[in-house]
Amino acid sequence: MKKDLAQATLRAGLGTEPVEYMLVLELPVVLLETINSIKKRFSEKYGAIQGHTRAQITLVKFAQYEFMEPRMLPRISIIAGSLPVFTLELQGFGSLPTHTIYIQVLGKISILHAIQALRKMQSLFRINEEMSPWFITEPSIIIARKLLPGQYEKAWQFFSHQNFSGRFIADKLCLLKQSAQGTWKPVATFLFEQATSAGIQEKLF
């Protein structure tokens, strides 16, 4: 049945190539603007940032055919609706020598609980054994990645002595899809159980 569906879709000219997806916790606007200003200053001081550095907390990355979206979206919605709203604290900077600098996320238990819930539908995130989903084990907010050795050393010498703090309420998941141009665009948003009204995230920061 699945094979027939895939073949029919391919014959229709859809889903001929896998698409990259991410499920993320998006940041409130005020916090996002603050972090983006840090990233901008990083580029100005230490050189262009390489690779994907969208300011968010990524939960899972995977590749799938677009024709699978109608099957994925309802399942993600059910799982998101079963998750409680939770508060996250951001505190200080960390690094992965010698290539990545990030903002540390405290209270990761709630995030890992959400990731564990999403593992229940990992078969829909997998095309084959060579293209399995990547579930994040150490949630963080990336400032810069794929840094050159000299670039990393200079930047970390500065960021290791800098303070940063933030706080926001996580009340939804966002599914992002990578376009042919390499940009990431939202596909759908899924509210958590008893999600609070819009704007409360802004008040917390």
CATH architectural arrangement: Alpha-Beta Complex
Q: Helix share of residues? A: 25-40%
Number of domains: 1
Radius of gyration: 18 Å
Order of helices and strands: HEHEHEEHEEHEEEH
**Spatial shape:** globular
Distance between the termini: 49 Å
Q: Which homologous superfamily in CATH is the superfamily?
A: Cyclic phosphodiesterase
**How would you classify the helix and strand content by structural class?**
alpha+beta
Any idea of the CATH class? Alpha Beta
Beta-strand level of the residues, as a percent range? 25-35%
Could you please say which CATH topology applies here? Answer: Cyclic Phosphodiesterase, Chain: A
Helix count, DSSP H or I runs of 4 or more residues: 6
Give me the side-by-side strand order of the main sheet. Answer: 5-2-1-8-9
Any overview of this molecule?
- This protein has 205 residues and is α+β, with helices and mostly antiparallel strands.
- It has one domain: Alpha-Beta Complex (Cyclic Phosphodiesterase, Chain: A), CATH 3.90.1140.10.
- It is 33% helix and 30% strand.
- The protein contains 6 helices and 9 strands; from the N terminus they run H-E-H-E-H-E-E-H-E-E-H-E-E-E-H.
- It has helices at 2-11, 29-46, 69-81, 108-118, 149-159, 200-204, and strands at residues 19-25, 57-64, 86-96, 100-106, 134-135, 140-144, 165-170, 172-178, 184-191.
- The protein has a 5-stranded antiparallel β-sheet. The chain has a 4-stranded antiparallel β-sheet with strand order 6-4-3-7.
- A hairpin with a 5-residue loop joins strand 8 (172-178) and strand 9.
- The longest helix is centred in the first third of the chain and has 18 residues, at 29-46.
- The N and C termini lie far apart (49 Å).
